[in-house]
Amino acid sequence: MIPNASDALFWLEAHPNCLKGIGRGIERETLRIRPDGFLATTQHPKSFGSPLTHQWITTDFAEALLEFITPVYNDIDHLLTFLRDIHRYVSNELGDELMWPMSMPCKIHPNQKIQLAQYGSSYIGQMKTHYRQGLKNRYGALIQMISGIHYNFSLPLSFWKEWAGVYNLQDGKEAISEGYLQIIRNYYRLGWVIPYLFGASPAICPSFMNGRESTLPFERSQNDMLSLPYATSLRLSDLGYINRSESSLDITFNNLSEYISSLKTAIQTPSEEFVAMGIKDKNGNWLQLNTNILQIEDELYIPIRPKRMTLSGESQSDALQRRGIEYIEVRSLDINPFSPIGVESEQIRFLDMFLIWCALADSPSIDSMGLAFTRQNWNAVITEGRKFGQTINMDYGKTKYSISEIGHRLLHDLNRIAKTLDSLSQIPHYQHVCQHLKASFKNPDLTYSARFLHKLKSQGLKSTGLSLATKYRTQLSQEALEILNNHHFINEARRSRIFQKKIEIKDKRLYRLHEMKK
């Protein structure tokens, strides 16, 4: 059935204080759109500062794709208020532009040129743009316009002290890293519950399929929308973020050294497809950074990743190798269209409980074949998760269980974790989440995707998106800032521009020195 966590849950109930100090951070992506619902063609607003060096407001793939980044906080309400402050400020600075409230892109003209994100003239700034040119040529620009929520999660040192006998971060880096890899393996096994409950991309605009083929049996609605009747998250399907060379990556999560070795191999191994593309065109324009399976480590598109804060000039894999895993990045959350900021506290609390459960439950090693098998379960939920009687294959297909049955058993364990977490605040927030989501496992019509698809079918994708974007802009722009104020944003924009300029001046000096030595 599901991994056993019974003994570990008894242990947790006896050590509730070990969960004090959970670290949480959020990254939210959103497209800027025009008042007519089409993609904005303007550059990243100058009033926001430099997207290369700004702490909170940057760009992802394109100039029109905003990304908001929060600091790490222990308090969920403070975290979400900070994120809301960013949205409030941006809403007032965008003029007549709006923020698209869905994961799958708005309508994009077939001939519209999507401008890649620009980061200035420095070496690192130019490389970031060239990397995005590579993404465009490898996977297509439209795929890169998909938005999501990334949730960064870390357990406190107090947990690792009690659970793994760790007394300081440096000496305990192996034990902590193994603990996070245990979370990742269990997330692969049962993480499909995230798109089942919170997936919110059951439909797409036909413009997204421009020039593309798919075997998915889409239904076309009268208001020009493509959907699947039981889909939960098309963002996570083969239409969305996947590496076409995933089968050749052979990346597993049984120990950190193997993970790092596999990742480094992927960024050093040429791909026949990308070798044929070349690095530059005949005019010397960049087509991609290199011809390897992955240009850089960030190109690894997986539902959850081990992470470590890096030092200047340090790669992610080197940071992991030297200091171990610091936190995990959950990448399976769609933009929540029912929230002005794309995510709600209910989702954060469920993720907290589920990730803690993943740390406690038995987590045997899992090979590449096992990971491929878990992907089949994910695909079943992503494309047909709300289908009546939908089952999940466990133990390499030896047994099948309904989603409802697995959800019921999982929530039984999560409710025990909820009581432990609630004991720290004396407020039953987590227990309320368990009780509320219990109904969604019994009735798929209560999931985010079902509720949103009903809205889309009645109003149309473009109309729904514009209506929500306008509603949220009005709501957010009328709210007062709570944690930050306008001076914080103005000063950060100024600081980011100065910092970018310093980087560019330093690069010019290094270039002159290099030329003088020739």
TrEMBL record:
Query: What SUPFAM superfamilies does this protein map onto?
Result: Glutamine synthetase/guanido kinase
Q: Which reaction does it catalyse?
A: L-cysteine + L-glutamate + ATP = gamma-L-glutamyl-L-cysteine + ADP + phosphate + H(+)
Q: Which Pfam families match?
A: Glu_cys_ligase
Q: Does the keyword Nucleotide-binding apply?
A: yes
Q: In which pathway does it act?
A: Sulfur metabolism; glutathione biosynthesis; glutathione from L-cysteine and L-glutamate: step 1/2
Under InterPro entries, the record lists:
Gln_synth/guanido_kin_cat_dom, Glu_cys_ligase, Glut_cys_ligase
- In which domain of life is the source organism classified? Bacteria
Q: Which UniProt keywords apply?
A: ATP-binding, Glutathione biosynthesis, Ligase, Nucleotide-binding
The answer to whether the entry has keyword ATP-binding is: yes
Q: Which GO terms describe its cellular component?
A: cytosol
Q: What is its EC number?
A: 6.3.2.2
**Biological processes annotated in GO:** glutathione biosynthetic process
Q: Indicate the enzyme's highest-level EC class.
A: ligase
As one GO molecular function, the record gives: ATP binding
Residue span(s) of domain Glutamate--cysteine ligase: 14-381
Q: What NCBIfam families does UniProt report for this protein, alphabetically?
A: glu_cys_ligase (TIGR01434)
Give the family this protein belongs to, as stated in its UniProt record. Answer: Belongs to the glutamate--cysteine ligase type 1 family. Type 1 subfamily.
Protein name per the record: Glutamate--cysteine ligase
* Organism from which the protein derives: Candidatus Erwinia haradaeae
